[in-house]
Write a structure and sequence with these properties.
Elements (H helix, E strand, L loop, with lengths): L1 E4 L2 E4 L2 H5 L1 H19 L2 E2 L5 E2 L5 E5 L4 E5 L4 E7 L2 H8 L5 H8 L8 E7 L5 H8 L12 H18 L5
């Protein structure tokens, strides 16, 4: 069976289309790749040019950045390369300039990346992700800020657990 995705026509075996969990996971992964590709500009040498106005540095020591996709969905990126991270951190730049320094010099393979929608997690899963962070949400009243912190905890926990390559 053929499925149209953008300008592409993809041939899927029948079992993929009838297995909704597999198809939902596959569609989610395609969405993440599409968002990373279309929300950032790739240069001719495959380096990435980020729109620095869309990204907020959430951890300058780890070169971690967040981009709000919606009120419940956030994209996180974090530099993979330890040598590059130490080099960039040696300049002691303020948070606004970290991504600017990395612009046009890194490739998508230099980053851990995930798009997290907190609506994809139930209360029990969220509580489990938040448990290592103590009372991180205790003084946060804004719902979008709470969702952003939950997404960050999920991203960091999955990163520590080795869920990203």
């Amino acid at each position: 069976m053929f499925v149209k995705w953008g300008r592409f026509l993809i041939n899927f075996p029948h079992f993929i289309l009838v297995n909704s969990d597999f198809f939902r996971t596959f569609a989610s992964e395609i969405k993440k790749i599409r968002n990373m590709m279309f929300n950032n500009k790739f240069n001719k040498d495959n380096t990435i040019h980020f729109d620095v106005n869309e990204w907020t540095c959430t951890d300058p020591n780890e070169n971690q950045f967040c981009r709000k996709v919606s009120d419940t969905e956030f994209e996180y990126i974090q530099l993979k390369n330890d040598g590059l991270r130490k080099f960039v951190n040696s300049f002691h730049l303020n948070n606004k300039h970290l991504l600017s320094v990395l612009n046009d010099k890194t490739k998508i393979t230099d980053w851990y990346q995930d798009e997290i929608d907190v609506n994809d997690y139930d209360a029990e899963q969220i509580a489990e992700y938040l448990s290592p962070y103590g009372g991180i949400l205790d003084n946060v009243t804004d719902e979008v800020d709470r969702n952003q912190l939950i997404a960050e905890c999920i991203f960091e926990t999955d990163l520590i657990c080795g869920d990203y390559e």
